[in-house]
């Protein structure tokens, strides 16, 4: 009697694996490669695991597959024209699938991703740049709309002022300006004499 096959799948295993590899790298355990990075005289060395670098970067995969047991137990790879901070961020990304960088470094991270042929980092940088561009375009659109509404609201009061001024001019045309042209409230001498006679 055959039993049906069932799938045993862990959702947390990939994350746990990455976390464990990251901890091993930070502690320097089981590391079998040293990456020496130099940029305009600034130099640093990073220890890592060949398997992690090869799995995340086609550049490193090609380097490691070509080597034949050189440099003893730990391989040394030299990288020029890569900034130390950028490579540190790259390593953090490949070991954790996330890294926090300043907005102005996103382009540099994209460049290092392309140089080291790291597809995941490239896609992540492209997505972030797209979001940043959309955000800037939205801000420009909102700014443009607010400018238009300010110009319209600034134009409306002047129209109101002009119409009020025109209405005031019409009212003044109905009312004479010269007090001599206005009908007198005082009675003329003839009218006051007539009133006295009646009394």
Automatic annotation (TrEMBL):
Cellular localisation: Nucleus
Keyword Electron transport: no
Region (Disordered): 148-199
Source organism superkingdom: Eukaryota
Pfam families: BTB
Chain intervals with Low complexity compositional bias: 165-182
Polar residues composition bias: residue spans: 189-199
Gene Ontology CC annotations of this record: nucleus
Main location: nucleus
Segments forming domain BTB: 31-103
Keyword annotations of the record: DNA-binding, Metal-binding, Nucleus, Repeat, Transcription, Transcription regulation, Zinc, Zinc-finger
Record's protein name: GZF1 protein
Gene Ontology MF: a single term: DNA-binding transcription factor activity, RNA polymerase II-specific
